[in-house]
Every structure is written in structure tokens, then in C-alpha cells.
Amino acid sequence: MIDLSVGQQFNAGAFVLYNHIVNENGDPITFDRHKFLLDFYMDESPEIVAVKCSQVGFSTAAIIKSAHLCHYKQANVIYLLPSKSIVKDFVIPKVDPLISSNPALKNMMGSTDNLGLKSFGIGALQRFLYFRSSWDEDSGISLSAHVVISDEYDRSNKKAVDTYQTRLDASRLTRPDLGFDWRFSNPTFDGAGVDELYQGSDQKRWMIKCSRCNHHQQLTWPESINMQTEEYICKRCYRPLSDLDRINGEWVPTYLGRRRSGYQISQLMATWIPASEIIKDSKGDQSIFYNFTLGLPFTSKDIQVSREAIIKCIYPTANPMTDVAIGVDNGKTMNYVIGNKYGVFAMGETDDWLEIENLRNQYDAYMVIDSNPYPTPPLKLANKYPGKVFVHWYSDDTKLAEVIVWGEDEKRTSVFSDRTKIIDAVVADINAQDILFNMTLDELENHEYLKHWARLYRIVVESDKGIRKGVWRTIGQETGTKKPDHKAHATILWKVAMQQTLSRGQIIKTPMNKPKNQIPKALYVNPDETIVNGSFNPQQMVQQMFRPKSKPWYKR
Ligand SMILES: [Zn+2]
Prior knowledge:
Blueprint: H1 4-10, H2 12-18, H3 35-42, E1 47-52, H4 58-72, E2 77-81, H5 84-100, H6 103-108, E3 109-113, E4 117-120, E5 127-133, E6 147-151, H7 158-166, H8 168-174, E7 180-185, H9 193-199, E8 204-209, E9 216-218, E10 225-226, E11 231-232, H10 243-247, E12 250-253, E13 261-265, H11 275-282, H12 286-294, H13 307-311, E14 325-329, E15 334-340, E16 343-350, H14 353-363, E17 366-370, H15 376-384, E18 389-395, E19 404-406, E20 414-418, H16 419-431, H17 441-446, H18 449-454, E21 456-462, E22 468-474, H19 486-501, E23 524-525, E24 531-532, H20 538-545
Parallel strand pairs: 1-7, 1-13, 2-5, 2-6, 6-7, 14-17, 17-18, 18-20
Antiparallel strand pairs: 3-4, 4-5, 8-9, 8-12, 10-11, 14-15, 15-16, 19-20, 21-22, 23-24
The chain binds zinc ion (ZN).
């Protein structure tokens, strides 16, 4: 048995036990329920990554480890969080009560104790714990430290985090025993942020043993839960797992000898979270359930538009070019997408607003143009072609009654759309082959169409008020090196304009209520441009395209 009074100096786990440390809510941290956190408390690997769910006490552990490193290892520690308000929302409700309710921590404190900076120890041995925002440009990027911890890494400014980490090299020269680079986060999407780092780690998995059949297993969704009885069950014998079964697991590395120590923590490991709560969470937004309950990146074909997804929508055939809608992405160079209910048949880019106007006249098209960054030219066109040309505004709030809202009266030249929902809808349409391209793969590639789409991805962000919401971002946006995605936005604006060619007020389809049997039988084009005919019927297609025009198609 280790002597805790001695052990506490060397190890944060022993420190917690010896000093009967309580968490920020005053509950003792005893490891009888949090056994899965003990290894992390004891882990002093130079590189640690944790892909974590919410509400399991992980950040509390990270704060205690930081204070322990300052005091017992004479380390300066930088604790990075995504935003300035999160620093405030983190230090005041979490760090300060943790220190004030634990005499052992309080006694270690030095003379400095403010929001962004705490000191530990006295005199020459005084060391500092900085809380900083990775998004705040001037918040001390020049600070150097022995340990840099990035919490909520996936929502942080990764360029800033990297800059802080590069300063560790200098500190390793004077303190080769330190220079720690630790990053933790709720994950976002596959192969990015902490998930990417975890893939390069030893990939520790929490293995438990069924006390009835002795089968070693990792708790996974949905296999480890019986939906009817709302119990955790063994994946082999299907009998209920006891709380003790789930507590008495151990971390087993998948890869031995890797430098980076990696944990993946889910709420399935937490014995105080009943299976019924997991089932309840599973019925909400799937990316929130995966990221925050299961601690897993969320993968769905609906949250990204892959090259393959677009290729499956290629249907290179003549388009009658009637009832045309055009979407225009505003900018120094305008990007446009032209199509109708049969499909997208042209796209391009121009620096000349006259060309945009000529395109509108050529097809007598409905046209939707983004308002930013140059609102004047679209407004001029909207006034010149009332009821035909509209200026588009993305709405980031959820106040819109529908996904697309057309302005009335003095706002009749405007159209508003819920940014997340309209992009969700168009992405779902492409993935379900509900949007077709009457163009060849070569033509699409010439306009970098597939590349522009591949740069959009969906993540979940949390507001200051703790409300989680899906948002679409573009690769590079976080580091100020946003890559072009204009053709994707032009397609979204085209989809908005398409509503004018349909009956007014028709709600745009969402993936949730889309009947599966409406997926069109598209002509498949392989990446090598060979064509798979499959169930393609040319006669049927021609008939469909040249129906008599006496009635609008949507009334048939
Ligand atoms: Zn079993």
C-alpha cells in the first residue's frame, strides 16, 4: 500500500484521496464511482488527449492536476479555453469554488488570485496557473509555460493553441521532465480535432467484465443497453450488468508504445447516469447525442457532401431550361448556379454584374443573390426586376417561422433563410439524389464544384447560455484561412430561388419527412467516368421531361 501522505506530492490521484478533495459542488471525489478517472489523475505523460462526453468530472480533474503541477512540480501552467466568456463561465463557477471548498488547495495558493491568473507557492517557488482564451488574440500568446492544457480543443482556435504549444520546446530545455501538451474536448466530427489526436494515441479503451459470463467488453451504444427494460446489459449473454461491473473496468491500450496517451470517455461509464437517460438523449439531435453523451464524433452522410455523393447525382442529359432559378453568391467574383426542377444545368463565375443580369434575362429566371459583402448591386437588380430578383439574408437565430421566409411590403425584395436548416436541407437533398446535375463530371470539376462542397462541415456549438446548436463551417475558417466554398452557397441560394418556381408557401423538404421511395433513379457515373446504367430507363426519362405544359407540374 502506498503511503498517501508521501504519494500526494508525486501524484494528483493520491493528493485527492489524502486530502479528501471535494468537487465544485462539494461532493467528495472518492473514485469508487469515478474509477475511470483515476488513471487520468495519475497520468503524467507528456502528451495526453481525451475525447470526452460532458458531465463526468473531467474538467474538475484537469483543474486539480493543474494546481498540483504548479505546487508540487513547480510548473507554470496555461489552461486554454475557447472563448473569453467561457473563461469567466469556467473560472467563477468551477475553479474558484473548487479552491475555496478545499483547504488543501487553498493553502497551496500564493498571493495572486484573479480571474485569469492564480499563483501557487511562495517567493522564488511561486508558480502560475493562467486561464486564457484561444480566441483572444492578445491574451498573452507570448507567455511561456511548462504545461499547456487545451480544454474544449475542438471549439478552440487551433492556430493559437499550436502557437502556445510551440513555446513548450523552450521550457523542455530547462525542465526536460515537463513540457506537457494536453488536449481535451467533446469531439466534433470524424478525423478532426481530438478525434484525430486520439487516432494517433495508444487509444485506451475502458474494458469491463460481465460478472455473470466473464466476458470482457467495451460499453457501446446501442449494443450495451436493453431498450425495453432500460438496463445496461452484457453484449454476450444479454443479462443485466451491475453498477459494480461498470465501475470495475480498466483502461486497456489498443496500441502499445505510442507516446501519446489517449482516453475516450462516454456517459455509459458513469454509474450515476441511468440507461433511461441515455435512451432519452438518443432521441434528440444526433450530433449532440454522439458528441456530448457518448463522447464520440458524429458521422452521418447528411453532415458533409462527399465527392461520391455528388457523382451519384450526375445525370448528364438535355435540360428543357424552363422555369429556371439562379442562385448567386456575392463577392469580388460572383459564383452562380443555374437550374430547374430537372436539375442544375449550368454554373460559372464572373466579375461583372451585367453578366449576372444578362443570365437572368436569358432564362427569364427567378434569381436569389446573397446580400453580403456588396449589398448595392443585388438591391439594384431586385428593384429593377420586382418579384423576380431577391436579396438573400442568412438568419442565424431560430426566429424564422419557416426555413425560408419571403419578405413582404417594404421588405418584398428580400428573402430570409435559417442558415443551418437550409444548408441541412440542401445537403440532405444531394445525399438522397434529390438534386441532379445535368452536367458532366468534367464540367463540374472545371468549376471546382466538388471541392467547394467538400469544404463545408457541420459541428455543434454551445452558446454562452449553454444552448447547443448545429452550425455549418468551412475548412480553414477557424484559422482565418477559409477556403473557397462559393459554389456550395450558390447552390443553396439556387434552392431558395427554386421555391419561387414552385407553389408559394411550399415547405422545403427536410430529411426527417422525406419518403424513401421518392429517391430518383439516377444515372450513376463512376469516378473513372464509366457509366453504370443500372435501372436507368431513357424512355421514362424523356417522357418525364417533355410532359405537356398545359398545367403547372406541381398541380398534376
Ligand atoms: Zn455476460
